[in-house]
Amino acid sequence: MKKLILLAACACCSAVTTSLYAQVNPMQGYIITNENDTIRGVIDYRSDEHNVRECIFQKEGSGEFTVYSPADIKGYRFENNGAFYVTKTVDINKKPLQLFAEYLLKGGVSLYYISTNYVNYYYFEGEDGKTGLVKELDFINYNTKER
User: Which of 1, 11, 48, 113 has the fewest beta carbons under 10 Å from its own?
Assistant: First the structure.
């Protein structure tokens, strides 16, 4: 009986682990490696909060998914003018964090969007390298990015 319970517990743990990495919303896209190589494949599109922390990627022709952190790649993009995430180090609550920031606008001042811990951040970066961060606290009731 103990062996049966142990076997059932192992099966449940295995199922939970597998479901953590199961694809939720696969979309065509590509990653940009730290060596500036572009690799096409499928990216698991999840929430804004999830997308800033990791990129779950499957290279074309491969059956395996690889989880990339912001330190592993320069960025990733979804096809057909989809969201474009780039690696940025941003001071949030006086702590530097390396995250994937969604690249919204390129220009004299570039604009990035980061959603983490129920807070939206808009990160500005000038051509001279100066940066600014605007924090929005109450976004649970509405989606400001869409506005």
Answer: 1
Residue 9 — very low, low, confident or very high, per pLDDT cuts 50/70/90? Answer: very low
Q: How many CB atoms lie within 10 A of CB 118?
A: 10
Please check the confidence at residue 10 and state whether its pLDDT lies above 50.
no
Three-state helix/strand/coil letters over the chain: CHHHHHHHHHHHHHHHHHHHCCCCCEEEEEEEECCCCEEEEEEECCCHHHHCCCEEEEECCCCCCEEECCCCEEEEEECCCCCEEEEEEEEECCEEEEEEEEEEECCCEEEEEEEECCEEEEEEEECCCCEEEEEECCCCCCCCCCC
Pairing of strands 95-105, 38-44: unpaired
For 36, residues 6+ apart whose C-beta sits below 8 A from its C-beta are: 74
How far is it, in rounded angstroms, from Cα 44 to Cα 21? Answer: 9
**pLDDT tens digits along 19-73:** 445 546 889 999 999 999 999 999 998 888 899 999 999 998 778 899 999 999 9
